[in-house]
């Protein structure tokens, strides 16, 4: 392990209280859980950041305070400023293609229909970074996607949220400490139970 090995974990979401607790802010919720777990304090205005040490590694958490669709520029700026290679970037986003409670971690691949992920792809000029996709499910018939993702989680989903956030935080820690395959195992093992 290199001295002062740095990692960037960027949660995607929309700023302001209006969007707090909405499906599109699943990335913020996981980042918040990591900060809470490690006693990291948030700082900053245009991009909130917090950091903590994890077994000799420095983990920088970030929550861009721009529209989620413009997340790429602040993420790219943080990578440059902190000299973090793209291989040590993990972006956390909501995903309509997985039911609530499911989460998937992979490196590479296209952004699908997620405009925040598309913004990160464009700003970095590569898809060769890891993404943790937190399932929020599909909207009910007759509800537009754009309305569904900025709506709050249901009461039943909120009751299950602590377990989901803890599992995602466990996967992020495993990714930093033991690599992508071990982090995927954390999520898949939990899915099997």
TrEMBL record:
- Per the UniProt entry, the Enzyme Commission number(s) are 3.1.1.29
**Which keywords does the record carry?**
Cytoplasm, Hydrolase, RNA-binding, tRNA-binding
Key word RNA-binding present:
yes
Q: GO biological process: what's one of them?
A: rescue of stalled ribosome
Q: Where does tRNA bind?
A: 19, 69, 115
Q: Name one Pfam family in it.
A: Pept_tRNA_hydro
The cross-references to PROSITE patterns, in alphabetical order and at most eight, read:
PEPT_TRNA_HYDROL_1
Question: What are the record's GO terms for cellular component?
Answer: cytoplasm
Site, as annotated: Discriminates between blocked and unblocked aminoacyl-tRNA = 14
Q: Does the keyword Lipid metabolism apply?
A: no
Q: Which reaction(s) are listed as its catalytic activity?
A: an N-acyl-L-alpha-aminoacyl-tRNA + H2O = an N-acyl-L-amino acid + a tRNA + H(+)
Transmembrane region(s):
none
Compartment(s) where it occurs, according to its Swiss-Prot or TrEMBL record: Cytoplasm
Question: Cross-referenced NCBIfam families, in alphabetical order?
Answer: pth
| Stored HAMAP family | Pept_tRNA_hydro_bact (MF_00083)
Reported function? Hydrolyzes ribosome-free peptidyl-tRNAs (with 1 or more amino acids incorporated), which drop off the ribosome during protein synthesis, or as a result of ribosome stalling.
The similarity comment for this entry is: Belongs to the PTH family.
| Name of the molecule in the record | Peptidyl-tRNA hydrolase
């Amino acid at each position: 392990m290199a001295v002062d090995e740095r990692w960037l974990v960027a949660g995607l979401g929309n700023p302001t209280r209006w969007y707090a607790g909405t499906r599109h802010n699943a990335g913020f919720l996981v980042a918040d859980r990591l900060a809470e777990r490690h006693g990291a304090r948030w700082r900053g205005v245009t991009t909130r950041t917090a950091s903590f040490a994890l077994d000799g590694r420095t983990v920088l958490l970030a929550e861009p305070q721009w529209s989620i669709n413009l997340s790429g520029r602040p993420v790219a700026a943080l990578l440059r400023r902190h000299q973090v290679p793209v291989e040590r970037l993990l972006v956390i986003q909501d995903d309509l293609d997985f039911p609530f409670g499911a989460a998937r971690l992979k490196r590479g691949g296209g952004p699908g229909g997620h405009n925040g992920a598309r913004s990160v792809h464009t700003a970095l000029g590569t898809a060769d970074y890891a993404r943790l996709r937190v399932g929020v499910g599909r909207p009910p018939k007759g509800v537009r996607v754009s309305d569904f993702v900025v709506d709050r989680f249901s009461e039943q989903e909120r009751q299950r949220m602590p377990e989901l956030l803890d599992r995602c935080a466990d996967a992020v820690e495993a990714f930093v400490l033991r690599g992508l395959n071990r982090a995927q195992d954390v999520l898949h093992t939990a899915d099997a139970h």
